Amino acid sequence: MRYFIEFSYNGKNYFGYQIQPDAVSVQEELEKALSTILREEIKTTGAGRTDTGVHAKKIFAHFDTDKELDDQLPRKLNSFLPPDISIKRIFPVKDDFHARFDATYRTYEYYISLEKNPFTQESAWQHWKRSLDVNAMNEACKILFEYEDFTSFAKLKTDNKTNICKIYKAEWEQNGSELKFTVSANRFLRNMVRAIVGTMVEIGTGKLKPEDLRKVIEDKNRNAAGTSAPGHGLYLVDVGYDFK
């Protein structure tokens, strides 16, 4: 049978979700715990690959096993896993349902601290030395909806077959000294959100104008966009599926 896992993690201590040589990953920790408890080799497929230091408030993965799983498995896994990975639930799905390819949308949030804050040093980008024009950044957000080819925001030398994405939502919200960017799309390229945020911050500081974003996108060149924002301010917050 195929099972889905809903879980969350703090990415500070990990080189992203996906297993890679000579680096600690969330997938490695998850598979080690599952394999130990179920006493068989378990391989998982995640909803996506997060970069080093990036967090996930809500993410899914699937795995296959012939064993019937009891209701206590999430509790057992949480007892075995490190404190920065938390299992929310495990449930059966159709045998061909896929955590990555059957996702209908993904939503990320990026947090910026507009004042020096010792309590968010590891959870938000500390951007307090220069002010940001949030209205200009939101003007630029509207331009994102005009395009689907986001090559300029894609990490170079990846195995992407296409750089086409459909963005459904993009907006900045300020709550006191906290600035939050929410972006939702059918899919994201590696490093895409961090590259968008870095470019938006250049617009917020006045280095670029909102309308300059069109040329950045149309150049289809990573060097045309801004420097990637730090990974520790980024959170995957939702992945959508049609479980019917």
Automatic annotation (TrEMBL):
The keyword Acetylation does not apply. InterPro entries: PsdUridine_synth_cat_dom_sf, PsdUridine_synth_TruA, PsdUridine_synth_TruA_a/b_dom, PsdUridine_synth_TruA_C, TruA/RsuA/RluB/E/F_N. Its EC number is 5.4.99.12. It catalyses: uridine(38/39/40) in tRNA = pseudouridine(38/39/40) in tRNA. Formation of pseudouridine at positions 38, 39 and 40 in the anticodon stem and loop of transfer RNAs. This is tRNA pseudouridine synthase A. Keywords: Isomerase, tRNA processing. The gene is truA. Belongs to the tRNA pseudouridine synthase TruA family. Residues 8-102, 148-242 form the Pseudouridine synthase I TruA alpha/beta domain. CDD domains: PseudoU_synth_EcTruA. It is an enzyme of class 5 (isomerase). Substrate binds at Y108. Signal peptide: none annotated. Homodimer. GO terms for molecular function: RNA binding; tRNA pseudouridine(38-40) synthase activity. The active site is at D51 (nucleophile). GO terms for biological process: tRNA pseudouridine synthesis. The keyword 4Fe-4S does not apply.
